[in-house]
Amino acid sequence: MLKYGTKIVAGVTPGKGGTEVHGVPVYDTVREAVKEHEADASIVFVPARYAVDAVYEAIDNGIKLIVVITEHIPVLDMARLVKYARARGSRIIGPNCPGLIVPEETLIGILPARAFKKGNIGIVSRSGTLTYEVSELLKNTGMGQSTVIGIGGDPIIGTSILEVVKMFDEDPNTDKIVVIGEIGGTMEERLAEAYKRGEIKKKVVAYIAGMTAPKEKRMGHAGAVVYMGMGTFESKIRAFKKAEIPVANTPYDIPKLLLS
Predict the structure, then answer these.
(1) Among 2, 32, 88, 176, which lies 20 to 30 A Cα-Cα from 200?
(2) Burial class of residue 184 (count of CB atoms within 10 Å of its CB; 0-12, 13-18, 19+)
(3) Which domain does 170 fall in, by range?
(4) Could you give the number of structural domains in the chain?
C-alpha cells in the first residue's frame, strides 16, 4: 500500500507501541494513533478472534471508513458490528474482502496494483479474485477504472452491492458500472429491483459466478450457498434480465457489453 502511494500515517498493534514499520509509527491503541495523526480510513488485518474488537475500536475513535480483510468472523458478531457502525456513521467494507483501489491514487487492501489503470468504470465485486481478473481484462482492452471495491464474500457484510452502485451512480468520475455477483443471498436481486424502478441512471453490466455450483453446498465463500431456492444463479440472472441489465456469460464478455 505504501509503495502504491497510499498515505499510511500509523499502525496499531497492542504491545508494539513506540516501534516503526517501513518508517510508519506504531501505537498500542487507535486512540493514541488518532491523537497524533489525522486519519479518515482504517484497514483491519487482525485475526478473526480479535478482529471485531479492532473494528469497534476504530468506530469508537471516529474512523469513518473501515476495510476488514479478515475471514471467519462469526455471523452474529458481524451483524451486531454492522448495526453499531451504521448508528455511529462509520462504513465497513468487508469482512472477507480484498479492499478497494482508486487506480493511480490510493490502495486500501490486498489488490494487485498491476491489474488496474485510471479510467471511468466503477467495479463492485463479491469475489476477490474476479475483482482483479475483470479489472485486468478491462485494462487490456484499453478501459480503466474510477474505483474498484471488493465488498466481501460473507453472509453479513458492511456494504451491499446496491449501496456501492448508488455511490457510483452519483460519482462524476464513473460513467459505467460493472457488478460481479455470485450465488447466495439476494443482493443482486435487490439491485435489479432498484434499477427497474429507475433508481440507477448509469449503464450497469453484470456477471454472476456459480452457474454450475451444486445446491446447499458452500462454494469458497461463506455467503456463496443457496438455501431453499433463495439466491440461486437462475434467480439472479432472471432478475437482471427483467431489469434489462446485460449479463456476461463469462468474464471475457464484460468488455464487449460495456462497449455495446
Answers:
(1) 88
(2) buried
(3) 99-259
(4) 2
pLDDT of residue 205: 98
In angstroms, the Cα distances linking 236 to 48, 224, 242 are: 30, 13, 10
CA 123 – CA 7 distance, rounded (Å):
23
Q: Active site includes 72?
A: no
Same-domain pairing of 33 and 158: no
**The pTM is what?**
0.95
* Cα 30 from Cα 124, distance rounded (Å): 29
Residue 44: which of 102, 90, 88, 79 has the closest Cα? 90
Helix axes of 233-242 and 187-196: crossing angle, nearest 10 degrees: 10
Q: What percent of the chain has pLDDT over 90?
A: 88
**Cβ within 8 Å of residue 181, ≥6 positions away:** 126, 161, 187, 188, 206, 207, 208, 209, 236
Say if residue 70 is in the same domain as residue 168: no
What digits encode the pLDDT tens for the residues 56-80?
A: 999 999 999 999 999 999 999 999 9
Which domain-ending residue is among 33, 62, 93? 93
Are 48 and 80 found together in one domain? yes
Q: Please check the confidence at residue 255 and state whether its pLDDT lies above 70.
A: yes
DSSP class of residue 213 equals: P
* SS3 state of residue 10: coil
Catalytic choice (22, 37, 72, 221): 221
Task: Please state, in angstroms and rounded to a whole number, the distance separating the CA atoms of residues 193 and 199.
Answer: 9
Instruction: Tell me the pLDDT band of 98, cut-offs 50, 70 and 90.
Output: very high
